[in-house]
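We emphasize that the prediction below concerns an isolated chain of 273 residues; any contacts that depend on oligomerization or on bound cofactors are therefore not represented. The input was used exactly as deposited, without trimming of termini.
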Amino acid sequence: MDLGDGVKLDLVRIPAGTLRMGEPGGSEDEQPCDVPIAQPYWMGRLEVTNAQFARFDARHDSRVEDKLTYQFGIHGYPENGPEQPVVRVTWREATAFCAWLSRLSGAKVMLPTEAQWEWACRAGTATPFWWGGPDDDFAKRANLGDAKLRELASNPYTVDEPLPDATKYDDWVPKETRFNDGALVTVKCGSYQPSPWGLYDMHGNAAEWTRTSYRPYPYQENDRRNDLDPEQPKVVRGGSWRDRPFRCTAAYRLAYRTYQPVYNVGFRVVVEP
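Result of the prediction step, given as a token string:
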């Protein structure tokens, strides 16, 4: 899709099928149910980037992430690069972007429903991640909360103390220390391996808004949970660079209010027939 000024948004065709939604042994709100995906649809190959979102709102700033202690002139780690995923964008802003892109393109552009998101994320697999389980090394596949997060911490008294000693002072962020994906905060979209369906960063980097209001399972398409009701909390999927793997699985669910610009939440789009 052409957003103008040389900025484009690539889409991947997602087939129809039947989704086994949820996770056996998962939390109470993840218990499995079968959901038909009646029609194929197109989904953004990547999360929406800062450059793409700027075509709609040039004033938006995804800002920076601070270290955990004194900055000593360091203002933080940038999340506002043109090819990084847009974050600190509310559900209402993401929905408005979709409406703008619909008018621009003539296509029906939406946020994915929760079922569309999970079906695409699983890419025909039944495991927590498209590459396997929680003990499989994700370093080349996703930007999750891992050993690299040690670098958020530093010695608050000495600016030139070298790592790793500097990290012993404020290294309190939970992390999966067995693996290191090389990324501290969000990185350029598409930096890791794609899923079998050609989608990037479905797990990690930035978490993603869905169209769906947060309600218990079993999931029902016709119970109005997918209405564009801005008064209902909306489901966020996929986890982020700050989240340990268990919060980044295909089934894990979070919810935020539609007016919240969350530091690690962005979105991707779908185009429906």
